[in-house]
Design a protein that fits this description.
With 126 residues, this protein is α+β, with helices and mostly antiparallel strands. Helix content is 25%, strand content 31%. The strands form two sheets. The protein has a four-stranded antiparallel beta sheet with strand order 3-4-5-6, covered by helices on one side. It has a two-stranded antiparallel sheet with strand order 1-2. Helix 3 runs antiparallel to helix 4.
Length: 126
């Protein structure tokens, strides 16, 4: 039986994209958001949506990346994406800083950035 290796290409900020094997880079935190279409008086599929994710390799490297899918016809928003690769076992504070930078760069709401930070694995203080 043939094993299928699922790969993902991730757009980064100010550098070429990277391709990963998803099984080697599990998601450790995620936050999603979308425009309240009821408030906006248009169908759900015509509103802006966004996501920010953190993946971490067993060796400690992490990738923080975000996408903003703009509903140009309705909102005039432009779709954007970006991310950062963090090397050398980044600290929790390093990952948090990257979430803030990437989220801000892509145009993710502060509430969604905070939600992603809160979704990170808890630090065990013993």
């Amino acid at each position: 039986m043939e094993t299928i290796t699922k790969r993902r290409t991730i757009t980064l900020t100010d550098r070429p994209p990277v391709t990963i094997v998803e099984a080697n880079w599990p998601v450790i935190a995620v936050a999603l958001g979308h425009e309240d279409s009821a408030r906006a008086q248009r169908p759900d599929y015509e509103g802006d949506s966004w996501a920010i994710r953190v993946r971490q390799h067993a060796d400690g490297r992490a990738i923080v990346y975000a996408t903003f899918d703009g509903a140009t016809a309705w909102t005039g928003s432009e779709s954007r994406s970006g991310g950062e690769v963090l090397t050398n076992r980044p600290s929790g504070a390093g990952i948090v800083s990257a979430i803030k930078r990437v989220g801000t760069e892509v145009g993710i709401s502060d509430a969604t950035i905070r939600e992603c930070i809160a979704d990170l694995p808890a630090e065990d203080l013993g």
